[in-house]
Design goal:
Blueprint lengths: L2 H9 L1 E8 L5 H11 L22 H8 L7 E6 L11 E6 L9 H5 L6 E7 L6 H13 L3 E6 L8 H12 L2 E4 L1 E4 L7 E4 L4 E5 L11 E4 L1 H8 L1 H15 L6 H5 L3 E6 L8 H11 L6 E2 L5 E2 L6 E9 L8 E9 L2 E2 L3 E4 L4 E4 L3 E2 L11 E2 L4 E5 L9 E3 L16 E7 L5 H13 L4 E4 L9 E4 L3 H14 L3 E5 L4 E5 L1 H9 L3 E6 L4 E5 L2 H10 L6 E2 L5
Parallel strand pairs: 1-3, 1-4, 4-5, 5-11, 6-11
Antiparallel strand pairs: 2-3, 7-8, 8-9, 9-10, 12-13, 14-15, 14-22, 15-21, 16-20, 17-18, 17-22, 19-21, 23-25, 23-26, 24-25, 24-28, 27-29, 27-30, 28-29
Bound molecules: guanosine-5'-diphosphate.
Guanosine-5'-diphosphate (GDP) binds next to helix 2.
């Protein structure tokens, strides 16, 4: 495959995730994006009879109902942006899902290693919420540029400047709105395009089921039409310009500023603008640094990183699905590639086309795309697959756990299987395993980002290793990385216990943040480092 073809495919791709707190409107926004990409003809059509009121479709349901290519992990669609030179060669958008709600887990963070940009979706009334903050910290740590969308502008909420201040002050990210709302939250009329000075006026459709018609107006016409609402928007926008809060591509890519849009996913207001901004400003897939520190160009032979592995809980190892993000080259279904960790060949004839509109006809994929691999027994998150000369990418780091439990077998006679299962589940990245001398091998401590990870462990211990296990929550709620020198002093403290993780990291667990703050104050010389995504 010629490198020109690959370059062209890469240039038109954008791979991103939506980071948000439950209920901010991620599903509604996903559906609105699909509507704009004309993958579906009516939003809310999948579940709800009465417009958008009842439920928002879940991706799998959309897939079943519409026959479009959606998986619970990645959604791909074409979108011809206004600036796209040839509408026959539209942009290809990959939206990778960040599981939230009850299934929030380490996978939620790992997904962010597979994207080139993130859309931070914020509820206009609620502002920054805990899960959004955690996901944002991971983006910041990985240098992923963030686009901010203030959602639900059709409902009463905070003022634009309050929201901008909150983001600036709490997370040190400077919003640079591209589109400023005309009308306060709850009275969403349209958007001031800050770069052209023009007005985009929206019209509601019944139940927000269709793409909202837009009317483009000059500033003079907008002033005549919206009066004070227009003037207020223009004045606040000028204030932002005076404060230097205009878009700057370099600062955005460096993670210092965030282009901002105001939207209503429910009414489909601002959704087209979001797509345009993604295409215009979000970076296309780029080179990824391998373990030798060399950037792997996208035009090199095929390589990919596994970022998520899903195992069915019903039967044996066979129904394991691994999701890879392509880093370089062209992927063709059926290719035999090499698994860098074992050096063994891996046949991709069962590659699931989670890409493309039509499952049966699309069987090539390019950098930025996500492909599901069936039967992926040997693959774990962070693993590399490649073709040609060997390449290996760095492992995905472990993220800050916030839930801690002991695990033990209900009977003592299954110790061997227990140990085997534990090792396997840990190597797959299902949970982190912590050990210390006091507790011994028979009751390791499991550490997780979300409690659902524990349920997966007990279910798989039973299904795959035939061991009944009991999970017992421990009274710890946060972890800090420490070192051998500080460990002894920490172990003497009440509400603290020190463990070693399998990767060698020494972690101190604390009952609560007040305990931690007290110890930090009393013993300022102890090493206590924040782990990635710790709140
Ligand atoms: P998720 O948990 O982030 O996926 O949120 P959902 O998309 O399920 O939305 C949560 C609730 O907010 C649902 O009742 C939606 O109908 C509602 N919602 C989402 N977006 C908007 C919006 O732009 N305006 C209004 N008024 N409601 C919205």
């Amino acid at each position: 495959m010629s490198s020109e073809v690959i370059s062209r495919e890469v240039t038109r791709r954008r791979t991103f995730a939506i980071i948000s707190h439950p209920d901010a409107g991620k599903s509604t926004m996903t559906e609105a994006l699909a509507l704009h990409a004309r993958m579906i003809s009516e939003a809310g059509a999948v579940h709800g009879k009465a417009g958008r009121k009842s439920t928002v479709s879940d991706w799998m349901e959309m897939e079943k109902a519409r026959g479009i290519s959606v998986s619970s992990t990645a959604l791909q669609f074409n979108y011809a942006a206004a600036a796209t030179p040839d509408p026959d060669v539209p942009n290809v958008i990959n939206l990778v899902d960040t599981p939230g709600h009850a299934d929030f887990s380490e996978d939620t963070y790992r997904v962010l290693t597979a994207v080139d940009a993130a859309v931070m979706l914020i509820d206009a009334a609620k502002g920054l919420e805990p899960q959004t903050l955690k996901l944002f910290q991971v983006c910041r740590h990985r240098g992923i540029p963030v686009i901010t969308v203030i959602n639900k502008w059709d409902r009463p909420g905070q003022s634009p400047l309050e929201l901008i201040d909150e983001i600036t002050e709490r997370i040190g990210l400077t919003p640079t709105p591209l589109f400023f709302p005309v009308g306060i939250a709850g009275d969403f009329r349209g958007l001031l395009d800050r770069r052209t000075g023009e007005y985009v006026r929206f019209t509601r459709t019944a139940g927000g089921a269709k793409i909202a018609p837009e009317e483009l107006m000059s500033a003079a016409d907008a002033a005549a039409r919206e009066g004070d609402e227009w003037t207020a928007a223009v004045e606040e926008s000028e204030l932002l310009t005076e404060m230097g809060q205009d878009h700057d591509q370099e600062l955005f890519l460096a993670g210092q500023t965030s282009p901002m849009i105001f939207a209503s996913a429910m009414l489909n207001f601002g959704v087209r603008q979001l797509l345009e901004v993604l295409v215009e400003l979000a970076p296309p897939p780029g080179p990824r640094t391998d373990i030798e520190g060399r950037p792997r160009p996208v035009t090199d032979p095929f390589s990919a990183v596994v970022f998520k592995v899903q195992a069915g809980m019903d039967s044996s190892h066979r129904d394991r699905l691994a999701y890879m993000r392509i880093v370089s080259g062209e992927f063709e279904r059926g290719m035999v590639v090499t698994h860098a960790q074992t050096g063994k060949p891996f046949a991709t004839k069962y590659a699931q086309a989670v890409f493309g509109r039509d499952r049966s006809t699309v069987d090539t994929a390019y950098p930025g795309d996500v492909v599901g691999l069936v039967n992926a027994t040997a693959l774990a998150p962070g693993d590399t697959l490649y073709d040609g000369p060997k390449v290996q990418f760095p492992p995905i780091p472990s993220f800050a756990p916030e839930h801690f439990s002991t695990l033990r077998a209900t009977t003592a006679d299954k110790y061997k299987q227990f140990r085997k299962g534990m090792d396997q589940l840990e190597s797959e990245g299902v949970v982190q395993v912590l050990r210390n001398e006091t507790r011994g091998e028979a009751s390791p401590v499991l550490a997780a980002v979300g409690p659902m990870q524990f349920e997966v462990v007990t279910a798989r211990m039973k299904a795959e290793y035939n061991v009944d296990t009991i999970i017992e929550p421990l009274g710890f709620s946060l972890a800090r990385r420490t070192d051998a020198d500080s460990a002894a002093e920490l172990n003497r403290q009440r509400g603290v216990e020190v463990f070693t993780r399998t990767d060698g990291a020494i972690l101190a667990l604390f009952s609560d943040k007040w305990r931690l703050q007290y110890i930090e104050k009393e013993h300022p010389d102890l090493t206590l480092e924040t782990l990635v995504a710790a709140a």
